[in-house]
Amino acid sequence: MMCPLSLTRYPSFRRLFAVLLWLSLILTGCSGGESENRNGAAKGGPREVPVSTARVAVADVPLELTSVGTVEPYASVMIKPQVTGILQRVAFSEGQYVERGDLLFAIDERPFAARVAQAQATLAKSQAALANARRQAERYRNAVNSGYVSSEKADQAETSVATLQATILADEAALTSARLDLDHCVIRAPLAGYTGALQVDEGNLVKASSEQSLVTINQLSPVKVSFTLPEQHLAEIRRRLAANELRARLDDLSADGSPLFGEISFFDNTVDRLTGTIRLKADFENANKELWPGQFVPVTIQLTVRKNALVIPARAVQSGLNGNYVFVVVNDQAHQQQVTIDVNSGDLAVIAEGLSEGEKVVTDGQLRLREGVRIKDIDPGSNGSRP
């Protein structure tokens, strides 16, 4: 009797069966993928990529340089005592606006008033002695002519007069110094501005030799803004300064949103070797106190205007291994085009080579594009004569 064929008894048949099964599964998957591809093609092919576009336009573009500036007070004065004494009065509040000549501090003036009185008394004594010496010298001169007194005595009298005259000059200087010290007991604001933090309270002893200031006053109207610009623009900056055509602009800082303009007041005499920049300062009126010392502000300098320049939105420009490029739209298809950028001005890029006026470039959605992909402009109404 014949036994039925058993796969368990013949391993070679078992392996052959597994290989055939594996091949059949692969062939089935491939045929299914081809069927799906055919169905996709039948439904209209690849989907369109939605993008935003803009036209290459011709425009006059201002060439501007931007920098981050620091606001500085127009003038800053550290108030220090010029005499040593007890601080009796502080006549202002911290952060208060003071006018030139306003009272700030009062130091106990009694010791200095006493020194003034002493100097006055010493001067009066010397003046009386001088008057007496002059009378005596006059008598000696008359006596010498009559032969009653020697010339030596007359000369001694004249010397006494000269000595007392010098003493009076010294006494007058001492009196002037004492009066100055008395005046320094009252400290007034040397300029109009805002006071800072008070460093010494009433009742403390202040010293003329101390390095610590009592308070600092900053003048804020006008105010200075210090900033730096790249040295490669040095020649153009100097030319514009010589023609008095260079101004600094601050945007989005005024209460009504209008720009603030300042005149260049300082141009450094050397280029910083570490940063390759030149330092400038501009004066701003700051009538409404929008600018405050220590504040960081964006500074814009307009050097020149490029006439009839080809411009596109700067966001349309992409960077690749071969340099800058854009996607140009031709017959609703995206084509990669290498471009040369002359300069960037704000949100615009000035094109030196690679594009022509009127061409359409992709401004948003580039990451999903490749050569020849069909696009769909989601905002065709934005394609005007200007990007």
Task: Please tell me about this protein's structure.
The protein is an alpha+beta fold and 387 residues long. It is 29% helix and 37% strand. Strand 14 and strand 15 form a beta hairpin. The strands form 4 sheets. The chain has a 6-stranded antiparallel β-barrel with strand order 2-9-12-11-10-13. Strands 6-5-3-8 form a 4-stranded antiparallel β-sheet, with no helix packed on it. The chain has helices at 11-42, 110-146, 151-183, 234-242; strands spanning 49-55, 57-79, 85-90, 97-98, 103-107, 186-188, 193-195, 205-206, 215-230, 247-250, 260-267, 277-284, 296-313, 318-320, 323-330, 333-338, 340-345, 348-353, 360-364, 375-377. Helix 2 packs antiparallel against helix 3.
Care to give the gist of this entry?
This protein is an alpha+beta fold and 387 residues long. It has four helices and 20 strands.
Category by helix and strand content = alpha+beta
What is the string of helix and strand elements? HEEEEEHHEEEEHEEEEEEEEEEE
Which band does the percent of strand residues land in? 35-45%
Largest sheet report: 6 strands, antiparallel, barrel
**Strand segment tally:** 20
Q: What's the N-to-C terminus distance? A: 94 Å
Strand order of the largest sheet: 2-9-12-11-10-13
pLDDT average, as an integer? 85
Indicate the percent of residues in helices.
25-40%
Number of DSSP helices?
Answer: 4
Point out poorly predicted stretches. Answer: 1-10, 29-45, 383-387
- The coarse silhouette is elongated
Over all CA atoms, what is the radius of gyration? 45 Å
Write the layout of secondary structure elements.
Elements lengths: L10 H32 L6 E7 L1 E23 L5 E6 L6 E2 L4 E5 L2 H37 L4 H33 L2 E3 L4 E3 L9 E2 L8 E16 L3 H9 L4 E4 L9 E8 L9 E8 L11 E18 L4 E3 L2 E8 L2 E6 L1 E6 L2 E6 L6 E5 L10 E3 L10
Parallel strand pairs: 1-20
Antiparallel strand pairs: 1-19, 2-9, 2-13, 3-5, 3-8, 4-7, 5-6, 7-9, 9-12, 10-11, 10-13, 11-12, 13-18, 14-15, 15-16, 17-18
Helix pairs in contact: 2-3
